[in-house]
Amino acid sequence: MISIRKYLDGPEAVAVTPAPETRNRRSTLEVAAVYLDAYRSALTDFGRCSVDVCASTGAPLENSLVRTSDGLASSRSADLVAASAAQVRACLKEWSHNTARHFQQKAAEVKQILLAMAQTTAAVTQRDQRCTDQLTSITTSLQRITSLDDISAMRRAIEHNAANLKASIDRMQVEGRAVLDQMQAKVAAFETKLQEAEDFAACDPLTHLRNRLYLEDQLAQRISAGSRFCVAILDIDGFKSVNDTHGHVLGDELLKHFAAELRSACRSSDIVGRWGGDEFLVLLDCGIDNAQAQIDRAVKWACGNYTVQGTEGPVKLTVGASVGLAEFAAPESMKELLDRADAAMYQNKRAGRPPTKIA
């Protein structure tokens, strides 16, 4: 029986076996191919899940695992598989450390917020205590006035305490305003940091479009509300050959350029995001006819000739995309909606028909 290592080393390493063992050899080759495909699929799925766990640290891991999977698709070398396994272990170790540091940093930021709230509460408490002491002192003085028989002395005492009361109230207002201003400044700073963190968590680090997690959340909200909307899935044609021919660096640059053109061609009300790899998703809050016209225009704008800077200089590329368009039809699920759009996109890719295909 042929070994998996011999299969991975290529057909030249496969020893000629007697005819009776042909079936066993074929079975081993099929098993090895299944294992390799499962390994590549696991790499891709793990990379996608790492983005769901932590977008900021998961994106670099996803890109690395996708590149490793693509490399294994073009070679069956046992040495390459072993090297990829070592590389994957190193990437996972780095990702775990980066993710731990990321969440430690977020925990520290939450601690800062809690400390600021505690300090503000303490400042307000101290101010209130001072005001209470001052009012108590004035009340005591006023009680003493009642025991005076001299009207002039009583008047002077009242005037003095009235002045003290006014000064205390003025001081309370000043201190209260200072504490309030300080608290508002801290709240504004924390709101800015929170908004930045939310924007970062919803952003694809390569293309700066919305990421898959954000898109899924927006889809879920619209489905839950029963809104009328459409989904378009775009897949760049022949993108793998660009990576294989010119390298992943140029491939990443092409994704950035295509994403920018797609975003500029869509309306401000449309949500444009990177679904994964070379797939993009556009969420349109309108019916199918309006969405069809909008996607046709956007694809026409985004597709065409590109000049992309690679490691060895500029490369001219002609970029096309296959598109699947589907309108939400209650009570279907998110998966059913996306499956319809995805099936339409692949039908469009196989048929080589105009840019869009209505599901």
UniProtKB/TrEMBL annotation:
This is diguanylate cyclase. Its EC number is 2.7.7.65. The keyword rRNA-binding does not apply. It is an enzyme of class 2 (transferase). It comes from the Bacteria. One of its GO terms (molecular function) is diguanylate cyclase activity. Keywords: Coiled coil.
